[in-house]
């Protein structure tokens, strides 16, 4: 059986690489003991703002065996999205993860391919794929399986590649060889805490989601609070400041996923172009993009706030 586990683990990791994933780590499915008090505390302090969905499925968030019957393994995968070119300097800013097509669909397709491969090569294996859309603590699982450590900005960090990548999971009822967590390499650095325009990183490793620019520009349905005037640093969708200043991101290399390449307008538009954007242009530029979440009205609300 041990030989099987070793063999299965090797072929799964090799196939994930072939599918374009940056890396693959595997953990034993079970209750995330250390995360439970942390998540409870974060919710009790209302750090999720209006993101009410964060309160749902508390138990499932901490225990994948409640999501997939008889699950044995959590396979964590990273997919690079660091772009080769960034936006024009005189522009309202969009988080780099949203430059290309919506990652949910792209990653889900890759994960389904991986699951099909496992079922073809290994046999009767049940599992589910997860991309940010179910109550799974992505970063905790990725850290547990040795793909990186959770940095002071609460994002997963990896020595050789930084943090500009997506995290996804495949939860299976198959026993595999498990990886071990890595160590924290943030040291005494406080670059992310010092640079956050809204002081959303309230302590090392603790982000108050309700103060984050990404929250204001994407999740918040009400008007952006007036006390945030002048603090959003020209971000109209998401924010990358804590990642941009992180020394580990000096190692980021451009992705090689054509579907993540930006629509030309995203990198060339000036502030004036964004201010004058029409429904027709919005639909063209953000066809199949995560930015569609805010709709044109949401983007215009953010731009008006930045201009005022």
Q: Strands across the major sheet, in which order? A: 1-2-7-4
Helix content: 25-40%
What is the terminal separation in angstroms? Answer: 65 Å
Structural class: alpha+beta
- What share of residues are in beta strands? 5-15%
Number of domains: 2
CATH topology of the largest domain: NADH Oxidase
Q: What is the arithmetic mean of pLDDT?
A: 92
SSE pattern: HEHHEEHEHEEEHEEHEHHHHH
Shape: globular
Backbone CA Rg:
20 Å
Number of extended strands: 10
The CATH architecture of the largest domain can be given as 3-Layer(aba) Sandwich
Which regions are unreliable across 5 or more consecutive residues at pLDDT < 50?
none
Summary tags:
alpha+beta, NADH Oxidase, two-stranded parallel ribbon, 12 helices, 10 strands, 34% helix, queuosine biosynthesis, iron, EC 1.17.99.6
Please provide a written account of the structure.
The chain is built from twelve helices and ten strands. The protein has 308 residues and is of the alpha+beta class. The strands form four sheets. Strands 1-2-7-4 form a four-stranded antiparallel β-sheet, with helices on both faces. Strands 3-10 form a two-stranded parallel sheet. Its cofactor is [4Fe-4S] cluster; cob(II)alamin. This is Epoxyqueuosine reductase. The active site is at residue 132. Pathway: tRNA modification; tRNA-queuosine biosynthesis.
């Amino acid at each position: 059986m041990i030989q099987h586990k070793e063999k299965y683990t090797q072929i799964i990791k090799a196939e994930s690489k072939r599918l374009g994933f940056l890396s693959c780590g595997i953990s034993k499915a079970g209750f995330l003991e250390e995360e439970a008090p942390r998540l409870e505390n974060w919710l009790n302090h209302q750090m999720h703002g209006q993101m009410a969905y964060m309160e749902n499925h508390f138990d499932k968030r901490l225990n994948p065996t409640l999501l997939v019957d008889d699950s044995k393994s959590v396979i964590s995968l990273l997919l690079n999205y660091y772009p080769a070119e960034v936006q024009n300097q005189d522009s309202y800013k969009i988080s780099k993860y949203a430059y290309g097509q919506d990652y949910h669909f792209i990653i889900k397709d890759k994960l389904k391919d991986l699951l099909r491969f496992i079922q073809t090569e290994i046999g009767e294996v049940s599992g589910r794929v997860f991309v940010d859309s179910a109550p799974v603590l992505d970063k905790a699982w990725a850290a547990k399986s040795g793909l990186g450590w959770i940095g002071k900005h609460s994002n997963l960090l990896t020595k050789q590649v930084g943090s500009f990548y997506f995290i996804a999971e495949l939860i299976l009822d198959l026993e595999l060889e498990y990886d071990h967590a890595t160590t924290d390499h943030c040291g005494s650095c406080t670059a992310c805490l010092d640079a956050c325009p809204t002081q959303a990183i309230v302590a090392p490793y603790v982000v108050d989601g309700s103060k984050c620019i990404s929250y204001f520009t994407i999740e918040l349905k009400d008007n952006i609070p007036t006390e945030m005037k002048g603090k959003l640093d020209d971000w109209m969708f998401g924010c990358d400041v804590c990642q941009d200043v992180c020394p580990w991101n000096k190692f980021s290399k451009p992705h090689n996923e054509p579907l993540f390449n930006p629509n030309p307008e995203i990198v060339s538009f000036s502030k004036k172009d964004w201010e004058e954007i029409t429904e027709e242009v919005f639909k063209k530029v953000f066809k199949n993009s995560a930015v569609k979440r805010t709709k044109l009205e949401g983007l215009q609300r953010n731009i008006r706030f930045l201009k005022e």
